[in-house]
Amino acid sequence: MQELTDAFQRQFAAHQLPMPDAEVYLISDFIPPEEQKSLQQALTGKAAWRQEKIRMFGKQINQPRLTAWYADAGKAYTYSGLTWEPLPWIPELTALRNRLEELTGASFNSVLLNLYRHGQDSMGWHADDEPELGQNSIIASISIGQERTFSFRHRIQKSLKQTLTLPTGSLLLMAGPTQHFWHHQLPKTAKVMQPRINLTFRFIY
Ligand SMILES: O=C(O)CCC(=O)C(=O)O
Ligand SMILES: [Fe+2]
């Protein structure tokens, strides 16, 4: 089981969202403004983006986003019925991983990249609760580019909701029992949206 350090919890207490059965922090300025553009350019150009398909109602359809998956050698991950073979780390991702590990005291050995090209790209309700993530996993989710809405919905008390906007450069940290009690989504929007890259750093057992 992973835990955030006491030092992190004290330092970022004011950034914790008021959600029961959860431990979620939003740190708006994790990536300094002067780094955001170059990071977005580097990842847009260099990451090994793939258009994966998902099965829905017996049909194969394109996922409404592009994805890329980096991890330590030997860490395969099963996600929406797909098994991902990891790519070797690139320097930009290693640098972010090191910063996150220093900040949180947690370890990360993999990152899933999502590229939302426009407002019709999205991710539906889910929890990051696959068995290989273990109990009380820590998920560090970095946003670069277009600001988008992100929502949580309690899995048992369905009327409990928390909606936020994820600005560019922000870090959303999900820890404690969050994945066991809440679903989250990134909804589609009819508004015109520029591209957004999201990186979710995880630890896979
Ligand atoms: O794009 C986001 O902010 C959410 C991504 C997400 O939930 C995931 O990759 O599991
Ligand atoms: Fe997720």
UniProtKB/TrEMBL annotation:
Keywords, A to Z, come to: Dioxygenase, DNA damage, DNA repair, Iron, Magnesium, Metal-binding, Oxidoreductase
Q: Which Gene3D superfamilies match?
A: Alpha-ketoglutarate-dependent dioxygenase AlkB-like
Q: An example of a Gene Ontology BP annotation on this entry? A: DNA alkylation repair
Transmembrane regions: none
For this entry, the protein name equals Fe2OG dioxygenase domain-containing protein
User: Any signal peptide, and if so, which residues?
Assistant: none
Which Pfam families does the entry link to?
2OG-FeII_Oxy_2 (PF13532)
Please name the source species: Rufibacter tibetensis
Q: Which InterPro entries match?
A: AlkB-like (IPR027450), AlkB-like_sf (IPR037151), ALKBH3 (IPR032854), Oxoglu/Fe-dep_dioxygenase_dom (IPR005123)
Q: Which residue range or ranges hold the Fe2OG dioxygenase domain?
A: 107-205
GO molecular function annotations of the record:
catalytic activity, acting on DNA; demethylase activity; dioxygenase activity; hydrolase activity; metal ion binding; oxidoreductase activity, acting on paired donors, with incorporation or reduction of molecular oxygen
Cofactor field: Fe(2+)
